[in-house]
Amino acid sequence: TKEELATIPDVDASVNDVPFEAKSFAGKIFLSNELIEDSAIDIKAEVQSQLQQLVLNTDNHNVISLLQTLTSENATDIDGLKKIKNTEIDPAVLGSVGSVVITNQDGYNYLDTLKDSQGRYLLTEDVTAQSGKALFGLPVVVASNAVLPDVSGQFPVFVGNLPQAVAVFRRDNIAVNWEQFDSFSQGLAVIYRGDYQFIDKNAMKYALLGTPAGK
Predict the structure, then answer these.
(1) Residues 78 and 135 sit within 8 Å (Cβ to Cβ)
(2) Contact, 103 vs 142, CB < 8 A?
């Protein structure tokens, strides 16, 4: 509130610094000119595409590794997971763009087979989701078991708003191509610089879904 003709008071902008250190990620490959010229497909374009996929894989690996440092909570069933989502995350956060459910292949298979009391699947169709499905109205993102493995027989599940939880600091993302004359080949490389840091750990919760092995 403000009294009539009183000076407008300052407000706390709540802007906090997030320290980061951009790390360099790089990889290269050499293709012989014979291979490039004789391949039935555009092998050079294919390799360049795969190098950019490595950048995406690097993002996924580092973001998931960061999320795995969150304190996990046990959710023995879907109701336990729903309670974490309903009571431990600010509804305003979940209502913002970027809210997701992230799990691995085993977790997705488990969720995709669950039905309610009337025999209807709990996962709903969502054409905007990476998996094509939604849970609790949130798009489901599926990571491979290799990147996000089960934990003692339980399925890892992250629920919350990813861009409000984690910042991806991006710098250079350079694709390089050069001639290697002495070996009659071409070199292709990608150099990527970036870092991954939490902004707000409360914007994302880490649950282990199911009963631990041996119990």
Answers:
(1) no
(2) yes
Of 53, 62, 18, the closest CA to residue 200 belongs to: 18
Alpha-carbon gap, residue 45 to 48, rounded angstroms: 5
Which residue type occupies 190?
V
96-112 tens-digit pLDDT: 999 999 999 999 999 99
Sheet holding 185-198, edge to edge: 23-32, 185-198, 166-180
**Short-list 117, 106, 105, CA closest to 79:** 117
Look at residue 15 and tell me whether its pLDDT is greater than 90: no
DSSP state of 136: T
Q: Phi, psi (5° rounding) for residue 17?
A: -75, 140
Give residue 215's pLDDT. Answer: 63
- State pTM to two decimals: 0.86
Q: How far is CA 169 from CA 10, 19, 91, 108, 198, in A?
A: 30, 10, 26, 29, 11
pLDDT digits (tens, 9 = 90+) for 157-212: 999 999 999 999 998 889 999 998 899 999 999 999 999 999 999 999 999 999 88
- Residue 17: pLDDT over 90: no
